[in-house]
Design a protein that fits this description.
Elements lengths: L3 H25 L4 E9 L5 E9 L4 H10 L1 H11 L8 E6 L2 H14 L1
Parallel strand pairs: 2-3
Antiparallel strand pairs: 1-2
Helix pairs in contact: 1-3
Amino acid sequence: METTRQKKVSRVIQRELGTYFQRNASSYAKGGMITVTTVRVSPDLGIAKVYLSIFAVPDKEAVLELIKERTWEVRKFLAAERNELRIAPELHFYIDDALDQIERIDNLLKGG
């Protein structure tokens, strides 16, 4: 069960990272779009699992790997923007494929 503090920190991180990826999407996904769908923070606020939707990009895994390689840059931005967080949490990035699954199910239902 998430505490109120975890939920608040998650919302702050989601908003700030959303802004970051909106400004810097071209350096990660040429012509694509990156959206932060969910952030889950550990009880000690030390780790944040960030789920991303990546659109209009042929190789989502390659974009995710580039983001993982440059995690320090994203974390640095987060620390600079949100100085109310004593320590910027360690960021772990994942692809949120829920929309892809919904689209697949929708296509199956239409076709079958």
